[in-house]
Amino acid sequence: MHMHKLEKIWLIIGVGTLVVFLTIIGVGAFAHGNEPPSDLTILDPQKVDETPPFNEPGLKKIGENEYELILIAQAFSFFPNDVKIPKGATVHIKVTSKDVVHGLQIVGTNVNMMVTPGHVNSLTYSFKEPGNYLILCNEYCGVGHQAMSTTIEVTEA
Fold this sequence. Notes:
Elements: H1 5-31, E1 41-42, E2 58-63, E3 66-74, E4 77-79, E5 82-86, E6 90-97, E7 102-106, E8 112-115, E9 119-126, E10 131-136, E11 149-155
Parallel strand pairs: 3-6, 5-11
Antiparallel strand pairs: 1-9, 2-3, 3-4, 6-9, 7-8, 7-10, 10-11
């Protein structure tokens, strides 16, 4: 098959660019040991109820307008169910799973985490607007997945 000289040049440039891109990704992922910013704390998923801070799930005030929310995801539910948070408060969310991979997405925000058994996933968020925020599991976790939700109520301070 005959290829035009310019086609060969562009093919070489395209393949070269792909090789450079994959090399950069490989070096960043493997040589530098880059990992996601959370999900670094490990625990035994069989002993979640005995392991601090998951032995006392819920919302705890830890400072001036600053809270820690400890959540446990398990077959088709989040625990605790309903949470009330003051508007504008900084909330440090920590979540783990007892059984299978779940997701935690707070609708209307950029909070979106994958919750894997044996790992603690965390992030910090501040709710600026009062209202009810729906928490959904966005990773298929079994036959009751569609019913796995809870709410966060953000109230005026």
